[in-house]
Write a structure and sequence with these properties.
The chain has 230 residues and is an alpha/beta fold. It folds into two domains: 119 residues, 3-Layer(aba) Sandwich (Rossmann fold), CATH 3.40.50; 96 residues, Arc Repressor Mutant, subunit A, CATH 1.10.10.10. 39% of the residues lie in helices and 23% in strands. It is built from eight helices and twelve strands. The strands form three sheets. A five-stranded parallel sheet has the order 2-1-3-4-5, sandwiched between helices.
Length: 230
């Protein structure tokens, strides 16, 4: 059975989410502060974190940054702020998805199940190599990690999935719609902030010069392309 961690100071909402995810055979632990949540992550293994932005003490953004220093599991952020600045900040800091309060519980469940499925699925197909090698970059499908001259490190789920999708289509120009629908598994609604934030994070981790990317290159007015020369 999958297990998630809910970090939110709204006790009633936490109880409702825990009750709802049980219908999907998912267990949930609850913490009401960022500090408590970070401690719990060191004690238990989870498949996903639901993280509220507005909390007393350490807020959701600070908690997100602390979690991302050690863990690559999916993080779904909740907020009552319906503005793009908060959304982009969370995505740039390492969130995998974002949902604004109030939300439909069925939509939350669908996002949870999708994130867990993508995190736990076995990416390697029969007959496919477990390692993809490029100039200065190795992608490990088994461990969902990458190796560069800076060492080997795991990537958060959406970062890994986006990188892998582009790499497997090396040399092809991919539209933002193609990337979004393949990586997120949802209909594209012309909101490019998710894609742009994740590619920005990937470039900072993989590139010597993020301003002149070697791997995922921008095709102006269309989308992106994984460099066919690497």
């Amino acid at each position: 059975m999958e297990k998630i961690l809910i970090i939110d100071d709204d006790k009633e909402l936490c109880a409702l989410i825990r009750q709802s995810v049980l219908t999907e055979n998912i267990q949930a632990d609850i913490c009401h502060s960022g500090k408590e949540g970070c401690t719990r992550l060191m004690e238990e293994e989870y498949h996903l974190v639901i993280l509220d932005v507005m909390m007393p003490g350490i807020d959701g953004f600070e908690t997100l940054e602390e979690i991302r220093k050690k863990y690559s599991l999916p993080i779904l952020m909740l907020t009552s702020k319906n503005d793009s600045i908060s959304k982009v900040r969370g995505l740039r800091a390492g969130a995998d998805d974002y949902l604004t309060k109030p939300f439909d519980m069925d939509e939350l469940l669908a996002r949870i199940v999708s994130l867990i499925r993508r995190y736990t699925r076995f990416n390697q197909k029969e007959g496919e190599p477990a390692l993809l090698h490029y100039d200065g970059l190795t992608i490990d499908l088994d461990t969902r990690s990458v190796t560069t001259e800076n060492g080997t490190f795991s990537l958060p789920p959406k970062e890994f999935d986006l990188l892998l999708f582009c790499a497997k289509n090396q040399g092809k120009i991919l539209t933002k719609q193609q990337i979004y629908e393949s990586v997120w598994g949802e209909e594209y609604f012309y909101d490019d902030s998710n894609i742009m934030a994740i590619i920005s994070r990937l470039r900072k981790k993989l590139e010597k010069d993020p301003g002149t990317p070697k791997y995922i290159q921008t095709v102006k007015g269309i989308g992106y392309r994984f460099n066919k020369e690497v």
